[in-house]
Amino acid sequence: MKKRILAILLVAVMAIGMFVGCGVNEEATSGSEMSAGVHANEITVGLANDLDSNLDPHKTTKAGTREVMFNVFDGLLKPTPNGDLAPALAEKYEVSENRLTYTFTLRDGVQYHNGDTVKASDVVWSFKRCIHPADPEIKPDDALENIADVIAVDDKTVAFTLFQPDVDFLSSMTLAVIPENYDRQNIAPVGTGPFKFVSRQAQDTVV
After folding, report:
1. How far apart (Å, rounded) are the C-alpha atoms in residues 184 and 176?
2. Which residues pair with 52 in a beta bridge?
3. pLDDT confidence of 74, banded at 50, 70, 90?
């Protein structure tokens, strides 16, 4: 039975595979269907498989889940439909002369869907839980293995230090940033993306 997935953007479908998660496994999704939603900012998509039971973006494994949750979360940068990277939570970044340190400045006043303000410490926590995962449900992400350290310089500045220069480093900055002091990501995910998670009915819908 095909599942009706409500309120997701068309760009999510275009960006399959571009959303960086921790230890993501690829699973094919077939038989997808899209139709215009009731409102201009809604799209209804039918997927052949149900979503993961755990909606934490760092623990999801199914391609269909990543399609949907892409719209709930932001990274420091975000992929565009043409394959480029654009600012998301970060308004700018600077690179050191030796190309080993990347310093990101967060946009002012960005809030999670629960009203909490995004802080540099959330970015640090989000990356560290994936670089050296203590939770067995989070698999180490090869895209992050060149990160030697990540620190919060202040509330809106984050610095990454690499083991060696890496031309692909910025692509890993699409990793979902989530609040450190929120423990319901698995069932009621909170992010900063263009769409807010409302509810889920297993084997049927997610809004």
Report:
1. 15
2. none
3. very high
List, in order, residues 6 or more apart from 134 with CB less than 8 Å away: none
Taking the C-alpha atoms of residue 119 and residue 121, their distance in angstroms, rounded to an integer, is: 5
Identify residue 89 by its one-letter amino acid code. Answer: L
pLDDT at 103: 99
Q: Residue 206's pLDDT band (boundaries 50, 70, 90)?
A: confident
Strand intervals (E) in 37-84: 43-47, 77-79
Distance CA 9, CA 126 (A): 24
In the chain, what's the furthest Cα-to-Cα distance? Answer: 55
Token pair 């077939």 in the structure block, residue: 30
Distance CA(109)–CA(103), nearest Å, equals: 19
* Distance of alpha carbon 152 from alpha carbon 85, whole angstroms: 22
Q: Say whether 71 sits in a helix, a strand or coil.
A: coil
Distance CA 114, CA 119 (A): 14
Amino acid type, 139: K
87-174: CATH class? alpha beta
Q: What is the pLDDT of residues 84-135, one digit of tens each?
A: 999 999 999 999 999 999 999 999 999 999 999 999 999 999 999 999 898 9
